[in-house]
Amino acid sequence: MVVATAVVGIAFGSLAGCSGADGPESPGTTPSADGAVDADRVRTGLAAVYVGDHATGSQREEGECFADALLGRLDSDDLVSAGILDTRGDVVTTLPVLDVDTATAWVDAQADCIDYVLASTRALTAQSKGKLDGERYLACLRGALEPEQIRDAQVAALSGGMESPAIAELTRAQSDCATESLPVD
Fold first, then answer.
1. Is the per-residue pLDDT at 9 higher than 50?
2. What average pLDDT score do residues 116-129 get?
3. How many domains does the chain have?
4. What secondary structure does DSSP assign to 23-58, as a single string?
5. Is residue 88 part of a domain?
6. Residues 135, 162: one domain?
7. Do residues 138 and 167 share a domain?
8. Highest-confidence range of 11-25, 32-46, 50-64, 167-181, by mean pLDDT?
9. CB of 122 within 8 A of CB of 63?
């Protein structure tokens, strides 16, 4: 079913940024002569990885917000240890599986800048070419899961826990809500 495929993609595709090997190159954050990482370049690189290839103005703003929020939680040493920055200080274009603490910081930074349920609603509405009743889906998903359950699923996805019950709950809720919010053909 197309809806189930879209739900899974929305559940996890937005968690770790949209860029892949063919995404935009990180602008780089090569350390200075004294070994310090250029914070502005890290911020720019994180924002670029977060929003992906074809960001709109508002998405770029969300990416900048996310980068600032993440940098408020993790320093460059944390980012290198997690594999988000390489040993030269460049932001990687594809995230590795993160440890739970780093995944939690990532998800919390994302939550500072975007409402996951609203983003899921917008994405499914666009994917369904407007057939999805967005208001109904939004209300359904908000009623089906507590914010902490969504957060737990996001952290599990970023930290490699794809078999997590939290992910199964989120995926099931998104699928059920999407089904309830589509017109009967």
1. no
2. 93
3. 2
4. SPPP------TTS---HHHHHHHHHHHHH-TT--HH
5. yes
6. yes
7. yes
8. 167-181
9. no
Q: Please state, as a whole number, how many other Cβ atoms lie within 10 Å of the Cβ of residue 36.
A: 10
104 lies in a domain? Answer: no
Q: Which residues are within 8 A (CB) of 77 and not within 5 positions of it... i.e. 6 or more apart? A: none
Q: Residue 91: helix, strand or coil by DSSP? A: strand
Segments forming the whole domain that contains residue 167: 2-13+116-181
Provide the pLDDT confidence category of residue 94 given band limits of 50, 70 and 90.
Answer: confident
Identify the CA nearest to 63 among candidates 46, 40, 39: 46
Structure tokens at 122: 């917008």
Q: What is the number of other CB atoms lying within 10 angstroms of the CB of residue 74?
A: 21
CA distance linking residue 15 with residue 115, whole number of Å: 12
pLDDT for the residue numbered 147: 96
Q: Are 97 and 158 in contact (CB under 8 A)?
A: yes
- Percentage helix, strand, coil for the chain under 3-state DSSP, each rounded to 5: 60, 0, 40
Whether 169 and 130 share a structural domain: yes
Residue 107 host element (H or E) = helix 100-113
How far lies 72's CA from each of 24, 67, 157, in Å?
A: 24, 8, 22
Q: Are 102 and 82 in contact (CB under 8 A)?
A: yes
Six token digits for residue 185? 């053909």
Residue 47's contacts (CB-CB under 8 Å, 6 or more residues apart) are 60, 63, 64, 66, 67
